[in-house]
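Re: the pair you flagged

First of the two:
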Amino acid sequence: MPTAVLLIAHPTTAEPVAEVLRERLDIAVEVAPNRRSGLASLRRHEYALILLEEGLSATDPEDLDQLCRVAAGAALLEINFVLSATERILRQVRSALARRAHDHAQARVAVARSLHGELNSTLAGLLLESQLALREAQPEQQPKLRQVVALASGLRDRLRA
């Protein structure tokens, strides 16, 4: 899925910026002329970044709060499209998208580490209990318990790799 950006601003100021972003960053850019249209777009699609005309955010703080809630994981940049040069907006968008990608990468690493730790802990308990059960097992139960110990040991070795 390509990176998608939502520009919420008057089309006459947003369209030139949208074109530059599309060309220079190779991303999907949708323009919404007002907050209401922006909210509708956010309910239909997921965006990596939202660029909001500063003038639109100043008029009603409650609308801005609602926009932030609906945006979920999208970063929000408030920009004055009239005063900001396109190159500056391009740098800000590039930076925000890079930050978002970095944050997502860090979150994935943290989740993987957490899952790895939980699996290792559970597996250590399973291996210990199966080894103890093997020591106390009747001769007819030992082949099955040896198989459980071998499976748990193999899984532990794969997790270590």
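Second of the two:
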Amino acid sequence: MTSSSEEVLEAAVAGISRVALAIAEISTEHRAKALEAAERSYRHTVQELGYEEGPVQGWVSAVMLRLQTEVRNQESTKQNLLEALQEELFQAATEVDKNVIPIERSEEQ
């Protein structure tokens, strides 16, 4: 493995979080296609570096496992943030309701 090949593979691995974030933002119905495209891209990159199919498959499988895990983590984080925001909004609305002074109507109206 040459130094430049190592740098390319390190850059690919370093970019997994950014790729996962982008894929997590895609609708769930299109996510499988995005993951397939990422896998093809990783495979193409390693093949272009001149690696044989055995090592290529092992490396791509490991990268895809990490990518899929990261996508799930991104989804979970996003869901947790949404739930926390909903709770904050509910609490704020509850506090506003407690502080509202009802206006009594006069019988003339």
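The radius of gyration is 25 Å.

-B.
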